[in-house]
Amino acid sequence: xxxxxxxxxxxxxxxxxxxxxxxxxxxxxxxxxxxxxxxxxxxxxxxxxxxxxxxxxxxxxxxxxxxxxxxxxxxxxxxxxxxxxxxxxxxxxxxxxxxxxxxxxxxxxxxxxxxxxxxxxxxxxxxxxxxxxxxxxxxxxxxxxxxxxxxxxxxxxxxxxxxxxxxxxxxxxxxxxxxxxxxxxxxxxxxxxxxxxxxxxxxxxxxxxxxxxxxxxxxxxxxxxxxxxxxxxxxxxxxxxxxx
Length: 244
Known about the structure:
- With 244 residues, the protein is an alpha/beta fold.
- 45% of the residues lie in helices and 14% in strands.
- The protein contains 10 helices and 6 strands.
- Strands 2-1-3-4-5-6 form a 6-stranded parallel β-sheet, sandwiched between helices.
- Helix 3 links the parallel strand 3 (64-69) and strand 4.
- Helix 4 (102-122) packs across helix 5.
């Protein structure tokens, strides 16, 4: 175990267990901490809004290299902007700064609420079957999806997470990106075209310390599809940051 802390933050419907393959590959060199988000897993009963959840992540992990996937990536970005003193570096996987257009954001908020209602009506198992069947996860093998662990989540926890932490509720961070201080690595799967493009756009409005990394043959859940590649990217990036 090394002295540099790596804090891993999962995405919507996942738990801290989703990071086990990546964490195992990093544990010999880093102090690896897997965080469980409010509304998920063992924290299913906890309720925090977006800025408070981002602050909570920082309070839990302290000074660290933060790695966040999807919803977790959006929270890590907010933390990096709010508390650069805590974020030695950030790795964002399949994450966005939010939706800048107010009309589009309102539509997404309504869609997130409708999805939350569908969870409350159908229950976790039926919702997860539909969630993982989306084109977004078409390249995610069944044995890497962690379906059994996702089913540890509760109806109320997932529904509330969508309403409090969903992209429609999030205050967009695009206008703050030029002030992003920590070195940041933006990882996206090459087959996840939307987020691969976003990584380039985010890099364009920040600076040379924000670097996109596109993983060939992977989709949105690149850390589940290619854990070895993602662990290597994190290792190399964290090491380079510490050597500066």
